[in-house]
Structure prediction request, 374 residues.
Amino acid sequence: MEIKAAVLTERGLAQPYDKSKPLQIRSLQLDPPGRDEVLIEIKAAGLCHSDLSVMNADRPRQLPMVLGHEAAGVVVETGKDVTAFQKGDTVVCAFIPSCGDCLPCAEGRPALCENGAEANNEGVLLGGKKRLHDGDDIIYHHLGVSAFANYTVANQHSLVKVDDTVPYEILALFGCAVLTGVGAVVNTANIKMASSVAVIGLGGVGMSALLGAVAAGARDIIAVDINEDKLTLAKELGATHTFNSTDPNIVDVIKSATNGGVEYVFETAGAVAALEVAYAITRRGGETVTTGLPHPEHKISLSQVTIAAEERTIKGSYVGSCVPIRDIPRFISLYQQGRLPVDRLLSKVISLDEINEGFDELANGKVNRIVLKM
Prediction:
């Protein structure tokens, strides 16, 4: 079938993107779903830094590629051996498919699925197939989803069936921002009630982590960002303290305000400087958790002795250490109960034709989440 999609053909183009146009809106051919695959009509897709990092060359991927991985839609057709979905189901996409056969999957850690990671790195669906074409040319898949299109084909293990009463533009957020941010708090760190928490970087993932900390019963919640509007929103969402990271004395200021540091600190900006601040404000015996994905060549420098002498923990968190089929419905339920107000993270809704301008706003740090509505 013929579809309309945003295709990245060249990485590293300069901003403003509304002038350089890294994402080109094209008509492509989409193959029908094969074994274990599902054809989805995409209803909404979020703009995320993981997409931006492919555009700006921080995360090298095969090109040309249809980006987009945070999405919600409706099942149109199912391929052979698909048993969990049927036509008309509402689904949220999970950008790490879980094969169920590798060791991490067997251990209950689908975010670390080895076959899913290999497929994502190669720009193919789980199982190795490529379903997107531009004439005779292959178009690669982004993280098994390629959601910046009106239709896509995904492996059934990249999908989670969800309640169809929640608006699509809200459902899309649960596929990445909420899954990663809330999951980092409740799964990776498993914070204790009445503990102190700090979040460095208040994009969609950072704000979600803040909401997760509120829902989990944190006592003190410190929000840190460069943008005053985001700090204001963080305060409205439950932050007890806010600090602007442009302050050259930010570490001393936060440690003074928190009696020596914070028990759990979450770095969600994907920047070396942010992780260094996060580690520096973590108290003795505390945990520093990073969800950010900077360029592979970026490295941090830490005082090794503090890890042992202060019993520090540094943890990575990918996809919030989540089990998507378990956690996405649970987080949606919390939203429906008013305990996880992720709708407050939605900055604006745009059309597919406005996607380059949307990434300008995301890159400039002015928004939390922009969502394409098809």
About this structure: The chain is about 30% helix and 25% strand. The domain at 2-175+341-373 is CATH 3.90.180.10 (Quinone Oxidoreductase; Chain A, domain 1). The chain has a mean pLDDT of 96. The longest helix spans residues 324-336.
